[in-house]
Amino acid sequence: MDLHKLVSTAQSDEKQITIEATVVTGFEDVVVEECQEKFGKDLLLMKSIGRVFFNIDLKDIEKVKELRGIDNILFIIATFENFGFSNKGTEEDSGQKDESDLLKDKLKDVATIQNKVLEIDWKKYMEIWKQITNYNGVLYPSIEQFNKYNDILRHKKSIRNEINIKKESSCETEPQVNNVQIEKGDLQNQELKEIDINSMCSSQNQKTNFTNPEENLLKFRVTCNRVGKHTVTSMESERAFGGKLNDTYFWLVDLDDYDIDINLQIRYNEAYVGLPVTQTSLHRRNIVEFNITTLKPTIAYNMVRLASPIPGDVFLDPMCGGGTIPVECSLSYPHTFFVCGDINEKLVLKTQANVLHNSGNLNRELKVSPLVCNVRQLCFKPACVDGIVTDLPFGKRVGSKSNNFLLYRLFLIEIGKIVRPQIGRAILLTSDRKHLIQALHITSALWKCRKQIKINMSGMKSFVFILNRTADLFDYAIHGLKEKHKGKPFPPRK
């Protein structure tokens, strides 16, 4: 099912909406499985790169917010199978045209974008958005309200910009005493002007019964993501789309402090428009103590889900960093136990802080036990752990790829000893795919790679390896490996 049919199906039923959930590229199948688990196997859905679309009843919107593997949530209000661009967004259609023809096509495309704004039933969908987000401001101000508060908002922005510029210039250089006094005087004057503006707002507030009038009127911006070759750029598309909304409904334009970020997605000659359900990304949760390699909770959850936890399972993350993976596992699967550790004692303390923070929020103790450990020599009994879920050193911010060459081999041998044969599994994340594959080849008697998932971590190409522990006992398997490399150092160093 394509997106247009999916949205049309939802729009034919007043109680349904189409949700767009963004996800880390590569985890789409994991999120589809989570959605079907939450809403049933009969859920109408489709997936795209980094996105999953599905139809739900409007009353189930809170359940969508409970999904743990997704980053952002939007609901689709319109789709256009044939947007009407002059060159349809492809290289073949662009051809060789002179400047006058290109300008005509550009003006035509700008007009097309503006006309598409009028084809959307904004009043219907803004009421749904208001219901979902509990927005309490004014959706449709009068022209008098718009002019009054738009001038105030613009004036306050200009004053703030001037103050910021003066502060930056004063920080860059060390002026003489007289100049400092002059700058301070200027800043005080600007601050007084801002106070005057605030007093204007308060006086107008008494007339309109708004606490902060310029904030009670809807403030918006438009974000356009575009694929293909078009006569208009993404910024020009945003300006045309947002300008028409501004002229039609008198919404205030604010690119920084906005109430709603309207999403316009253009792909060649197709497009769709979405409204946000969440103000910020859902990956901003649970963690209060960070380090330079802190993992996103959404990535951590998807990795834990790949391990297929069942009640009573014991998991280990011997390189836990700030503890994102154990915290997500304990929150999502409360009947599992998680032991985590790190060689850096400061990071273990950060993990403890994150565990205590989430325990306090839930009023229950998370089943997470942080400790200091060394992955080269893990102090656990043989076959005592059901699974390993960890974020390996990439060799970029921490360590180096030359160190990974030996570290990965030692690590796979150590966890092969403590993970239960046949039923044990390991979910490993790394960008150093080459050295992990080499390590798996050497430790093939202990581990079998079931699947590799390529993901995109903020532009960095990384891989999630899903490993299964072989049925061989550790002593038997390690003896075979040593015989295989007889007369050579084991594990091999080159």
TrEMBL record:
Pfam families found in the cross-reference section: THUMP, UPF0020
The THUMP domain, residue ranges: 147-277
Gene: LOC103510143
The keyword Cytoplasm is annotated on this UniProt entry: no
GO CC annotation terms, alphabetical: cytoplasm; tRNA methyltransferase complex
Molecular function in Gene Ontology: RNA binding; tRNA (guanine) methyltransferase activity
Name assigned to this protein: THUMP domain-containing protein 3-like
Subcellular location: Cytoplasm
Originating species: Diaphorina citri (Asian citrus psyllid)
InterPro entries for the chain: RlmKL-like_Mtase, SAM-dependent_MTases_sf, THUMP_dom
Keyword terms: Methyltransferase, RNA-binding, Transferase, tRNA processing
